Structures are given as structure tokens and as C-alpha cells.
Amino acid sequence: MIKKQLIMEKALELFAKQGFEATSVQQITDHCGISKGAFYLSFKSKDELILTLIDHFMMQITSDIDHIVKTSKDDRLLYDIYYASYSYFYKHLDFAKIFIKEQSQTFNNEFILKMRYYDKLHEKAILTMIERLYGEEVKHTKYDLIYCIKAFMKMYGELFFSEHEPLDFHLLAESLVEKTNILAKYMTISFVSEDYRKLNEYTSNEVVTKEKLVEIINQKIEEMEESIEKESLILLKEQLTEPTLSPAIVKGLIENIRNHPHCKWISYLLGDYYKSIF
């Protein structure tokens, strides 16, 4: 076994029993039968080891879900996603309990970025599944449905911490399939729009340049019918390429598009871009 894998495997056993804080590097090396020097050749610190373990688990479940989305038949897809997620979670329940209890120990910027990254990958896979299963039926509610599915996974997963007997994963998955299908069929009021999701992705992941803004605005102008909002977008694009307008006028143009359902994201990006002059 590769030394790094050995350290991860043995450390996982100790973390599951004792927790992150109570487990020392010395205990890990003793459990592995290696020196501290050998440990530090693989990991700079215990925190790096913990993050590597979390990374490993997230990569595994992400890969599994992606594979299921790509290979499962439509009549099994949703069930397979729920069943696989809970099975994997239960398999590593001891570590999951410690992680949830002591995650503040690893709650640094790197950890936050990792979790956001994997969360976006999961959302992407769930969206692909939703569009495949329900198509046009959920055109206006599919983004809400993503959050509903994520909430099901999280809230029902909490049963693992309160139940003393093993849960029936088959029944749980079938129950959630039924609930998800009902929501997909009958949900009509949409809260999470595509523009809202784009805004959310931007705030966590992306710095938008002037060139990117012009590209986004051009695309939106082509999609829109003649209106005050479209005229405002044209003027805002011209302002980006050849600035001539006062800050007050720019702010007014952004306000013109702010309440248009397809311009919320652009108004946010422009507001952020011009925040130094407002």
C-alpha cells in the first residue's frame, strides 16, 4: 500500500473513533507504524490530512452520481441517485458524524471553496437528471426542483444520526422518488430563476471582466424584444466600450433593467462593476 494511502486509511479509523481534535499526529504515526518524518513527507499537517480525506470522499460520491446520471435508465435514475447517496453516507457514517460535529476545525477558506466546488458539481448532475426525466414539464421550475432534491438528501440524511436501527434505504429512496415526481408534476410557482442562479454562481466563483460583460449584454440584446430595458442595455454596452455618460445616468439605466426578469443578473454584474463610482 502507498504510504499516503496507508496514512489516510489508518487516520480515518482514529478520527472515526476519537474525533479530529483528540487525534494527534503521533497517534496516527504509531497506528501506521511509521515515523513522524514519513508522515510529513506526505502531509504538511493534520489539517491538510483532514482536508485530503474530505476531498477524497467528495470526489468519490461526485464521481458515483455523475456515473449514475450518465448510465442509469430513466425509470431507475432518480431512485439510483437517492439510494447511492444514502448508501455511501451510511457506509462512512462514523466519519460523517465526526465531520459534522467538528467541521469548525477545518472551516477555513480552502475548505469552503472545496465544498462550494463539489456542491456546484452535484447541482450540475441533478440538473442534467431533471432535464432528462421531466423535460419541458419543469422548464420554469427546474431550478427550484434542484434545491428540493438537495433538501431531501440533507434532511432525510439526518435520520441516520437519530435512528438506532439501520434504515431501509430501498423504502427511503422509493419514498423520495414519489415525492420528487409529485413536485415535478404539480409545482407551478418558481422562486429560483436562471438569472438568480447565475447571480449566485457569480458571487461565489467568478470575476466578470468588461469584455465578458459586453458579451453577456450582446447576447441578451439579441434575445429581447424592443423595450425600454433593451434600449437601456444598448446604452450600457456603449458606455462600457466608450464611456461618455455620468454616473447618475449609468445608475438610472441599471435601475431601468433591474426588475426585468431576464436582466437581474446583468444589473447585478453592472452594479458590481460600477460600484466604485456609485
Automatic annotation (TrEMBL):
Transmembrane segments: none annotated. Pfam families: TetR_N. Keywords: Coiled coil, DNA-binding, Repressor. Signal peptide: none annotated. InterPro entries: Homeodomain-like_sf, HTH-type_Tx_Regulator, HTH_TetR. Gene3D superfamilies: Tetracycline Repressor, domain 2. Residues 1-61 form the HTH tetR-type domain. Residues 24-43 bind DNA. Residues 207-234 form a coiled coil. The keyword DNA-binding applies. This is AcrR family transcriptional regulator.
